[in-house]
Amino acid sequence: MLNPTIITQLQAIVGETRVKTDADSLKTWGCDWTKHYTPSASAIVFPATTEEVQAIVKLANQENIVLVPSGGRTGLSAGAVAANNEVVISFDRMNKIVQFYPADRMVKVQAGVVTEQLQQFADEQGLYYPVDFASAGSSQIGGNIGTNAGGIKVIKYGMTRAWVLGLTVVTGKGDILHLNKGMMKNATGYDLRHLFIGAEGTLGFVTEAEIKLERKPRDLRVLVLGTPDFDSVMKILSAFQAKLDLTAFEFFSDLAVQCVTASGDVQRAFPEATPFYALLEFEALSPAIEEQAMQVFEQCMEEGWVINGVMSQNETQAQNLWRLREDISETIAKYTPYKNDISVLITHVPAFIADIDAIVQENYPDFDIVWFGHIGDGNLHLNILKPANLTKDEFFGKCQVVNKKVFETVQKYNGSISAEHGVGMTKKPYLDYSRSPEEIAYLQAIKLAFDPNNIINRGKIFDVK
User: Fold this and answer.
1) Which regions of 125-238 does DSSP assign to beta strands (E)?
2) Which Gene3D superfamilies does UniProt cross-reference here (predicted)?
3) Domain boundary residue, one of 54, 73, 90
4) How far from the centroid of its chain's Cα atoms is residue 29's Cα?
5) CATH at residue 37
6) CA distance 306 to 294
7) pLDDT per residue over 377-409, tens digit each?
């Protein structure tokens, strides 16, 4: 339990009704989408300004209170889980569009702005925010920045990092820093904003961000292609990239399609099943581009890389084809999947997938694997589905054995144990598969420079002494 005096001090900062300690609130705001840890927060605090966040951090330093940032709580690495009586700082009230800069094609937002809210605002200005993923309706910009979120458009537009022009942060010391201030050019030494992007809230709290916007894509076409094997997916990627600028290139297995279509809301792209599917998107800005796409499609058919395929003819068809990919996470949730978000160089993807399939089949032949991912940027999502005869704890225990072998394979290919979901607590034991001891020592030193008392998101990514 949190000392009542501390609660009174927190209420003095944010208001009496903005500090919650009831059981339902502690459970709701103390967790994210991971199911590995039981939330155990001591209080939830809802600041409305950067200055209120600063006051909370200064109080936490004085009283040795550990703070955990909470955004849309859609994370998959337990980076926002309060499992050790921490005080949760929710950014739900800091959800305002602060200012739009038309000449700069830039918008300043508070950290609690929901991704979809920013996308809609950009659309109203005739512009586009391209960082997009299934949780866009609930994830918050601060959380996206904390994990350097990627999503389905990375092949064309890059990660969240590419769209952050400036940050306002409150460090673990309680200092307010205005980093880069939205400028495209600023050659004045270390660019500290990039330390906070992907830091998972371990250096301090992002409270505001200047976000770059882009022109809207036009005349988008979506192709879904069925392939006989995974190697064909990679050949299709090379063939289309040689002729077109793709805005997305995704892949998924037939088991993923079975899970999505079993809901009855989504239909297969074509009647026959194939082992794997590629979904690609491009701008058909002229008839010549669309004709070029059809020529590549026909070439892939002749080579035997594509068994069947379909291309959208209007926006509704495009949205329905996208659902085959975007509804996967939701429809496999009932199987309590054990998720791994990993990446390797695109060159290594076919061999890597073959190695992982062999590992799982050798150890647990009764486990089903749903593969999907942003194959155009080397990001793979490995989802092992829980058999009905195993409890969650039994299943996760068995997956821990597979985990070590999966990450040994990631290390073999010089890949990353976390492509876009972050490290948090779930991947912390495996960080040394992607980072050397020397790198980790530098990361720990950076953490202590910004947060010397280790009060911000303690125990996430790595431990510090």
Assistant:
1) 127-128, 164-171, 176-179, 204-212, 214-215, 220-227
2) 3.30.465.10, 3.30.70.2190, 3.30.70.2740, Uridine Diphospho-n-acetylenolpyruvylglucosamine Reductase, domain 2, Vanillyl-alcohol Oxidase, Chain A, domain 4
3) 90
4) 19
5) 3.30.43.10
6) 13
7) 889 998 999 999 999 889 988 888 888 899 999
